[in-house]
Design brief:
1 helix, mainly beta, 8 strands
């Protein structure tokens, strides 16, 4: 665990994202609104996020609305967000649907020519328990690649993992991948 933490910390410190203009918002913007839409990529660990060959497309639809404001974390451009989400599951995943709300912090680790790469984390609370995660409190971890379309609009591809960090015996986790459309103002 210590090696993982030090690796992540050194990655944050050594990367070259420029925080003078927040790539997640653009010049002079103080707010943003985003809509996320994704599909379930199966249960499992956080490691499934970065390995698409392990994804198991499942009959789950993920929708999230996000309001965010710019900030910096360790001098890197970032956003603080309030999120509401709905996961709708069908067929073999029946009974795994939930509504949730939470807060998150996303950091742009790298950016170049309007493209950016980032990570995010935050706590969430949902309206029920199920056979994959047996707690209402859970945490979200996200990886994303984005592109500035113009001064106000951004498009992101994301992959997100939700789990309770093994606070309960049942913690299979939820994984989603999809796209997000962001408007900054």
């Amino acid at each position: 665990m210590r090696k993982t933490f030090l690796t992540i910390l050194s990655f944050f410190v050594l990367t070259g994202a420029n925080a003078t203009e927040n790539v997640l918002f653009g010049t002079g913007h103080e707010n943003s609104f985003s809509l996320y839409a994704g599909v379930g990529t199966g249960s499992g660990s956080l490691l499934k996020l970065v390995n698409p060959f392990d994804w198991e497309i499942s009959p789950m639809m993920f929708l999230m609305a996000q309001y965010a404001q710019p900030m910096t974390i360790m001098r890197l451009p970032a956003r603080a967000s309030v999120n509401i989400m709905q996961n709708t599951a069908g067929h073999s995943a029946h009974g795994l649907s939930f509504f949730g709300a939470g807060i998150s912090w996303d950091i742009a680790l790298l950016n170049h020519s309007g493209w950016y790469l980032g990570v995010g984390i935050g706590p969430y609370y949902r309206d029920n328990r199920d056979r994959w995660v047996s707690s209402r409190l859970f945490f979200g971890e996200k990886f994303f690649i984005g592109k500035n379309i113009d001064a106000n609009w951004r498009l992101e591809f994301f992959t997100q993992h939700f789990s309770n960090g093994d606070m309960t015996p049942i913690n299979h986790g939820f994984n989603f991948s999809g796209i997000a459309l962001n408007y900054s103002f």
